[in-house]
């Protein structure tokens, strides 16, 4: 079957949905088509590891895609882009002609080199539904990964009465992002909450019923959930000859090396002037705002993506917002009201602020963005106090 649209979006996630809404607001008459590989219509992804485990309702996660008056085809994967003909081919043999195309293809969860097929590589609503079936008081849940997703899932599982074991190779939770003392404090906090945190451990193989661990021990679980990050889905762009380097290369207007093709969300590598380099991020704020700007640009509007993304997390009674680069290898400057419970961490590199971790400190994202954009130079002494530890 042949389809034809003014605007075609590959990817029915947060970025794709935001783009469709922006397209409709900017062009009341243009036709919009969306191809989504998942069976679910567009939804908010963060609640899958946070709000839905704390009383949030599934009905609240769905994005208002109906307002875009778009043709949405779910469970359909794009397989090829014919740039010359402006046509996308899909796995069912259909063709989709476009005038402007947006690649919002997201990413694929990284998997363990060995292990059972019944592991849940956590990313989608279907993954949430699988895990929900296993969660009940006393259920044994193994969480593989000690980064942002792993720490959120582990906290959510423990708050639902599960017996949680965390397994990861680092020395502490979020050791790559947090200063060492903060990472160690968070790890101790998880243990106080009843989580069995096993650092320096990887999964050597096995199945859900019996995991084989790198220290020679075994672990039985009712569910194994892995949060190991994602690999951007650049295969379509690669095959089509678009420029790719840790994501699809886009300019400030989210345009790829083909002027009729745009990219947004987890898959896009975009210029971040405040950081002085190109970045790719995997956060809700980036997906939604980038998708909206891409939609505007596809209609011919001058709407550059000039916003430095932020993200947030909830870990038991702790929470934070983060802006810019959180890399523990940078110089970190800590400013605590209450050590490891409320404060700000600055990340410095060559006299510039590259990131800010707002730990139980709220309403400071805009100020943090302004500080990161400032030329400096900053030192540990001069940067401390630039952001109020209390809003």
What would you say this structure looks like, in words?
By secondary structure, the chain is an alpha/beta fold. Helix content is 21%, strand content 31%. The protein has 3 domains: 176 residues, FAD/NAD(P)-binding domain (3-Layer(bba) Sandwich); 116 residues, 3-Layer(bba) Sandwich (FAD/NAD(P)-binding domain); 67 residues, Enolase-like, domain 1. The strands form 6 sheets. Strands 1, 2, 3, 4, 5, 6 and 18 form a 7-stranded mixed β-sheet that branches. A hairpin with a 3-residue loop joins β23 and β24. α1 runs parallel beside α6. It is globular. The mean pLDDT is 96.
Briefly characterize the structure:
The chain has helices at 14-26, 125-134, 148-159, 180-192, 235-239, 284-298, 365-373, 380-383, and strands at residues 2-10, 32-35, 71-73, 78-82, 87-90, 95-103, 107-109, 120-121, 140-144, 163-168, 196-199, 203-207, 210-213, 218-219, 223-226, 230-232, 248-249, 261-263, 268-272, 277-279, 310-315, 318-324, 331-338, 342-349, 352-359. The chain has 391 residues and is an alpha/beta fold. The model has no long low-confidence stretch (mean pLDDT 96).
What's the topology here?
Layout: E1 2-10, H1 14-26, E2 32-35, E3 71-73, E4 78-82, E5 87-90, E6 95-103, E7 107-109, E8 120-121, H2 125-134, E9 140-144, H3 148-159, E10 163-168, H4 180-192, E11 196-199, E12 203-207, E13 210-213, E14 218-219, E15 223-226, E16 230-232, H5 235-239, E17 248-249, E18 261-263, E19 268-272, E20 277-279, H6 284-298, E21 310-315, E22 318-324, E23 331-338, E24 342-349, E25 352-359, H7 365-373, H8 380-383
Parallel strand pairs: 1-2, 1-6, 2-3, 6-18, 8-15, 9-10, 9-15, 10-11, 17-19
Antiparallel strand pairs: 4-5, 5-6, 7-16, 12-13, 13-14, 19-20, 21-22, 22-25, 23-24, 24-25
């Amino acid at each position: 079957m042949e389809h034809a649209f003014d605007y075609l979006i590959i990817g029915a996630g947060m970025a794709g949905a935001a783009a469709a809404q922006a397209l409709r607001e900017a062009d009341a008459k243009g036709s919009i088509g969306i191809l989504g590989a998942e069976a679910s219509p567009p939804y908010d992804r963060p609640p899958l590891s946070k709000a839905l485990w704390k009383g949030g309702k599934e009905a609240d996660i769905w994005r208002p895609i109906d307002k875009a008056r778009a043709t949405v085809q779910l469970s359909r994967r794009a397989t090829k882009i014919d740039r010359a003909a402006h046509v996308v081919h899909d796995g069912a043999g259909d063709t989709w002609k476009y005038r402007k195309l947006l690649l919002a293809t997201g990413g694929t969860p990284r998997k363990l080199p060995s292990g059972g097929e019944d592991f849940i590589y956590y990313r989608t609503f279907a993954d949430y539904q699988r895990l929900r079936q296993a969660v009940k008081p006393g259920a044994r849940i193994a969480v593989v990964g000690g980064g942002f997703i792993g720490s959120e899932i582990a906290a959510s599982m423990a708050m639902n009465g599960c017996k949680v074991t965390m397994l990861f190779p680092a020395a502490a939770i979020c050791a790559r992002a947090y200063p060492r003392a903060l990472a160690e404090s968070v790890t101790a906090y998880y243990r106080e909450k009843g989580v069995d945190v096993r650092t320096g451990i990887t999964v050597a193989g096995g199945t859900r019923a019996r995991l084989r661990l790198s220290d020679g021990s075994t672990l039985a679980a009712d569910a194994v959930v892995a949060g190991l990050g994602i690999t951007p889905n650049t295969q379509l762009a690669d095959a089509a000859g678009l420029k790719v380097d840790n994501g699809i290369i886009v300019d400030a207007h989210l345009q790829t090396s083909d002027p009729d093709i745009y990219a947004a969300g987890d898959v896009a590598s975009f210029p971040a002037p405040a950081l002085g380099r190109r970045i790719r991020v995997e956060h809700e704020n980036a997906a939604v705002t980038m998708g909206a700007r891409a939609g505007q640009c596809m209609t011919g509007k001058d709407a550059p993506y000039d916003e430095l993304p932020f993200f947030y997390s909830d870990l038991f009674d702790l929470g934070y917002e983060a802006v810019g680069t959180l890399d523990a290898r940078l110089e970190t400057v800590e400013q605590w009201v209450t050590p490891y419970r409320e404060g700000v961490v600055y990340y410095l590199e060559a006299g510039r602020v590259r990131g800010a971790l707002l730990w139980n400190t709220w309403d400071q994202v805009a100020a943090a963005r302004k500080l990161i954009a400032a030329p400096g130079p900053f030192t540990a002494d001069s940067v401390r106090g630039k952001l109020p530890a209390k809003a």
